[in-house]
Amino acid sequence: MISSLESLPLYLSVANLIREKIFSHELAPGAWIDEKLLTASFGISRTPLREALKVLAAEGLITMKLRRGAYVTEVQETDIKNIFAVIALLEAQACRKVAEEATEEELEILDSIHTKLERAAANRDTERFFEVNQEFHHKLQDFAKNPWMHRVITDLRQVLKLQRRDSLTKIGRLEKSLLEHRQIMSALIGKKPAEAEALMKNHLLQGQEAAIE
């Protein structure tokens, strides 16, 4: 049951709970969303649940099917390629801007996150590596200072999280991803915009290859 002390509107709290179930695969890709079961589990009516499902559908995590209800989105290979194509273009531009305009303090923050990434890789902790990697890319978007770009990338990355974590378990991918991050960080610290842009684009396209292998 959802706490009455929750500060968010009820439908957003419900959306957060369902999102957690999706990312933990408690609700697996392709799974039907049983509204009756969820309303009973959360102790709510169908109105906030359906509003929550609209939020998740807008994020691409839920697919609404006419007369059949809501299903957890299944990400196909074509979807992955299309999503990565857009993310690679936008994040490469963001990386270029950060290399051009970031303050020393901002670069130090990115470098400290990268250090955590190194530590996770050394410990072979793919869960932690995934989390820190997300933190790095999120912070990079913050420092690019383009909220519209940030919103688009965040929504697309939400969809990729339906399958993204599995790619890091493939032989050699974690190490390769770390090397790519080292190169990106070096370009950022060296204030090399063109190099940072090219490296970020390559990093994301390499991630695409790992995701669809």
Quick rundown:
By secondary structure, the protein is mainly alpha-helical.
User: Radius of gyration, rounded?
Assistant: 19 Å
The largest sheet, given as strand count, sense and whether it forms a barrel, is: 2 strands, antiparallel
From the spread of the alpha carbons, the general shape counts as elongated
In DSSP terms, counting alpha (H) and pi (I) runs of 4 or more, how many helices?
9
The secondary structure category is mainly alpha
Relevant CATH superfamily of the largest domain: GntR ligand-binding domain-like
Number of strands: 2
Total number of distinct structural domains? 2
Q: State the distance separating the first and last CA atoms.
A: 40 Å
What proportion of the residues is helical, as a percent range? over 70%
What is the CATH topology assignment of the largest domain?
Answer: Four Helix Bundle (Hemerythrin (Met), subunit A)
Strand order of the largest sheet: 1-2
According to CATH, what is the class of the largest domain? Mainly Alpha
CATH architecture group name of the largest domain? Up-down Bundle
Stretches with pLDDT under 50, minimum 5 residues: none
Element order, helices and strands?
Answer: HHHEEHHHHHH
Estimate what percentage of residues fall within beta strands. under 5%
Roughly what is the average pLDDT, rounded to an integer? Answer: 90
